[in-house]
């Protein structure tokens, strides 16, 4: 049913995304589809690396570890942004095209009042993506 | 960071000289959630900065005149006692920057040897200009040259002869000499020196962040001097003062700028300053209006609305982010500014402006040494009232502008960087001053006491009107004055949004991906401080006193900048050796 699954991952908070990560891996196993983990980073040094190259190595290692523990085929894709806080949604939407994924599995919080004015990243991606999006509540 | 911490920090690819430190960006940050709002800020920089701001606002509100007298006295002390220190340091920054262009260090690329520029030249240039000094050009473009040309207060540069005395225009030779001196002194304050100050800060931050892998915040430039201690008390102190000076610098300019916008609106559309009790905005009565006169009147309601309007646009801009908001606004801004410049150039005395540009450059080259020498000066009221004031102002503003320039300059070589941050903006400023100031001086020479510029700068000192008075004597004044008001507003927005991003990054310990709620907080906080000070205290006393305090922090940052020169020197040396 699905040929390629994209799972956006926030490397600094991946412990809070366990449900979405597990869900993505389970669907991948069910359909025998590869998973591509997409991470977004700025070019300035951050807690996950001095530069985008270091961030990419971490993301690649993360994807490999996920692949090994779940027995699925995985890869990693690092997207650069000048201003990740504001650009995240647009970059994830672009990454769907770049990766050729036909399913996105991503984590999101339970919507509250503020989400009417200000949708969550998951909400925005689901509203605008042309492929199927599964938003996993944490 | 749970599962990725086991991987360690791998070697970087591409040639750059990473500083090995155990400090992890964000390790001192507090990450928490209040209701739906996620927070991720540096402790204690964020909290102390916020608390200090509140304390100083309270002081300015509770003792408006006492605070003003105290801070003004501090400002006068700093500017008169340390004039030599400001001038010699600024000279050193210019020489240091120029030396970097010609030495082999100029070939070091910010972001590693294989980095490519993030922004095109026009976008890069628009952003560094709009954040850096756009608003000052609007305010001083007419005011400063005319002031030097005819000041009756005895503070003309180098004590030269005036072009107009007691309303009588002097003979042609004296007028030409006074015109050249006025242009030279104005260019001196807007040319190489301020841009060298910005370039030093920006280069230090970009080098230590993009090439050495340290967080994008002021303290990183102190690593060569302080080592691991920059993560402790001294680093916190530097970052706190920087965030504090940036916030107050922005808030006070926003408040004072709102008065300029209000004057402009009143001048163009309205019927003068409102008497107490007759306040009126766009036809709506406000307060106990006794009579309704047409048009816009200058009132505290108008000021509050202007600040709210500017803050609202800045808010949209910071939420849309660097590429979607700040960059687009800066480009719009430069487009409008170019339009106004072209209009004044073509409709004003075009040949005289061109002559002014060339002779002004010549006079600048001739007078730069006497103007930048602090020793044995007779013209101390010019030296302290203008030059040291400007130097302290640029320097106290430099953490903000420098950090913003650093943020958008990755991928440029040091040589390219200095050329584009030092030489090109200087030339643009000089051309701007030659056009606006040259036109205004010509108006004064031709119209003498009849000219609007003379009446609003020399006969009675109304600096915020000077630009509109000049435009008023050119064709299509209604259109150009409106454009000028719009430009002043957008220039404020572009300073306000980039400033909020900078304060957010500093108070998040160098993280550029802190939650969006924090930049919203700083943007609103800044507008609120401006509004409270403007409306709460007597007139502009609160704003004046806090602006005086910000200028006094220039002394502290001069020392910071001197250390940065040393750090750049060390950093570029190891960069060349190790890559």
Pattern of helices and strands of chain A:
EHEHEHEHHE
Give the helices and strands of chain B as they follow along the chain. EEHHHHHEEHHHHEEHHHHHHHHH
CATH architecture of chain B, please? Up-down Bundle
Major protein interface: A-B, 31 and 46 residues
Number of domains of chain B: 1
Q: What amount of the residues of chain A lies in strands? A: 15-25%
How many DSSP helices of chain B? 18
How confident is the prediction overall: mean pLDDT of chain A? 86
Offer a concise description of the structure.
Chain A is of the alpha/beta class. Chain A has helices spanning 18-31, 52-70, 84-99, 114-117, 121-128, and strands spanning 5-8, 35-42, 74-81, 103-108, 132-137. The longest helix of chain A has 19 residues, at 52-70.
Descriptive notes:
The complex is a heterodimer of chains A (138) and B (579). In chain A, helix 3 packs parallel to helix 5 (121-128). Chain A is built from five helices and five strands; from the N terminus they run βαβαβαβααβ. In chain A, strand 2, helix 2 (52-70) and strand 3 form a beta-alpha-beta unit. Chain A has one domain (5-137): 3-Layer(aba) Sandwich (Rossmann fold), CATH 3.40.50. The two termini of chain A are 25 Å apart. With 138 residues, chain A is α/β, with parallel strands linked by helices. Chain B has 579 residues and is mainly α. Chain B has one domain: Sodium/glucose cotransporter (Up-down Bundle), CATH 1.20.1730. Chain B is built from 18 helices and six strands. Chain B has helices at residues 45-62, 64-81, 83-102, 121-132, 134-150, 172-190, 192-211, 223-226, 233-269, 300-347, 350-372, 380-407, 414-447, 452-459, 466-472, 477-507, 516-536, 541-578; strands spanning 29-34, 37-42, 164-165, 168-169, 279-281, 284-286. In chain B, the strands form three sheets. Chain B has a two-stranded antiparallel sheet with strand order 1-2. In chain B, a hairpin with a 2-residue loop joins strand 1 (29-34) and strand 2 (37-42). In chain B, helix 3 (83-102) packs parallel to helix 18 (541-578) and helix 9 crosses helix 17 (516-536). The radius of gyration of chain B is 24 Å and the shape is globular. The two termini of chain B are 31 Å apart. Mean pLDDT of chain B is 84; it is low at 1-14 and 274-295. The A-B interface holds A 11-12, 14-15, 41-51, 53-54, 57-58, 61-62, 65, 82-87, 112-114 and B 1-4, 7, 9-10, 12-14, 16, 18, 24-27, 36, 111-112, 118, 209-210, 213-216, 318-325, 407-408, 410, 501, 510-516, 519.
């Amino acid at each position: 049913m699905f040929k390629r699954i994209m799972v956006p991952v926030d490397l600094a908070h991946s412990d809070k995304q366990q449900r979405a990560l597990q869900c993505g891996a389970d669907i991948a196993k069910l359909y025998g589809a590869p998973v591509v983990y997409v991470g977004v980073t700025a070019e300035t040094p951050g807690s996950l690396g001095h530069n985008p190259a270091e961030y990419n190595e971490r993301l690649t290692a993360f994807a490999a570890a996920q692949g090994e523990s779940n027995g699925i085929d995985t890869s990693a894709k690092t997207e650069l942004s000048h201003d990740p806080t504001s650009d995240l949604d647009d970059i994830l939407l672009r990454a769907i095209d770049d990766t050729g994924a036909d399913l996105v599995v991503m984590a999101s919080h339970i919507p509250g009042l503020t989400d009417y004015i200000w949708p969550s990243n998951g909400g925005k991606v689901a509203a605008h993506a042309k492929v199927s999006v599964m938003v996993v509540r944490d | 960071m749970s599962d990725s911490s086991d991987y360690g920090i791998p070697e970087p690819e591409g040639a750059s000289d990473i500083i090995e430190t155990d400090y992890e960006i964000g390790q001192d940050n507090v990450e928490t959630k209040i209701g739906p709002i996620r927070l991720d800020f540096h402790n204690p920089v964020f909290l102390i900065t916020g608390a200090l701001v509140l304390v100083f606002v309270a002081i300015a509100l509770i003792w408006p005149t006492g605070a003003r007298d105290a801070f003004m006295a501090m400002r006068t002390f700093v500017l008169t006692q340390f004039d030599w220190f400001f001038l010699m340091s600024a000279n050193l920054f210019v020489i240091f920057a120029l030396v970097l262009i010609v030495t082999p260090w100029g070939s070091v690329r910010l972001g590693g040897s294989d980095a490519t520029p993030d922004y095109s030249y026009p976008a890069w240039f628009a952003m560094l200009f709009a954040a850096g000094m756009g608003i000052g050009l609007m305010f001083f473009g007419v005011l400063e040259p005319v002031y030097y040309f005819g000041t009756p207060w005895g503070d003309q540069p180098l004590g030269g002869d005036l072009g107009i005395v007691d309303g009588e225009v002097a003979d042609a030779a004296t007028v030409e000499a006074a015109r050249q001196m006025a242009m030279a002194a104005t260019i001196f304050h807007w040319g190489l020196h301020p841009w060298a100050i910005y370039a030093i800060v920006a280069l230090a931050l970009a080098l230590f962040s993009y090439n050495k892998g340290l967080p994008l915040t002021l303290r990183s430039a102190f690593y060569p001097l302080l080592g691991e201690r920059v993560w402790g008390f001294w680093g916190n102190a530097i970052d706190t003062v920087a965030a504090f000076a940036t916030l107050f610098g922005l808030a006070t300019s926003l408040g004072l700028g709102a008065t300029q916008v209000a004057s402009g609106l009143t001048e163009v559309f309205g019927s003068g300053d409102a008497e107490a009790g007759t306040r009126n905005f766009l036809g709506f009565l406000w307060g106990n209006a006794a009579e309704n006169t047409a048009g816009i009147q200058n009132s505290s309601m108008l000021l509050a609305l202007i600040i709210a309007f500017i803050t609202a646009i800045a808010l949209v801009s910071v939420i849309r982010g660097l590429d979607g908001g700040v960059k687009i606004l800066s480009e719009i801004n430069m487009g409008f500014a170019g339009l106004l410049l072209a209009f004044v150039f073509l409709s004003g005395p075009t040949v005289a402006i061109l002559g002014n540009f060339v002779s002004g450059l010549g006079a600048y080259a001739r007078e730069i040494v006497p103007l930048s020498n602090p020793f044995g000066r007779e013209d101390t009221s010019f030296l302290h009232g203008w030059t040291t004031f400007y130097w302290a102002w640029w320097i106290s503003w430099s953490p903000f502008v420098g950090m913003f320039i650093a943020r958008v300059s990755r991928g440029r070589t040091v040589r390219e960087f200095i050329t584009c941050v030092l030489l090109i903006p200087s030339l643009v400023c000089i051309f701007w001053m030659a056009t606006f100031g040259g036109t205004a001086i010509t108006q004064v020479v031709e119209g003498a006491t009849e000219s609007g510029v003379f009446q609003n700068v020399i006969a009675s000192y109304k600096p915020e009107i000077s630009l509109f008075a000049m435009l008023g004597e050119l064709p299509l004044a209604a259109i150009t004055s409106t454009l000028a008001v719009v430009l002043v507003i957008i220039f404020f927005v572009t300073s306000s949004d980039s400033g909020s991003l900078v304060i957010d990054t500093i108070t998040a310990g160098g993280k550029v991906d802190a939650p969006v709620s924090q930049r919203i907080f700083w943007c609103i906080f800044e507008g609120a401080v401006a509004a409270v000070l403007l409306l709460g205290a007597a007139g502009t006393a609160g704003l004046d006193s806090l602006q005086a305090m910000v200028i006094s922090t220039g002394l502290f940052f001069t020392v910071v900048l001197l250390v940065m020169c040393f750090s750049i020197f060390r950093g570029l040396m190891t960069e060349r050796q190790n890559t």
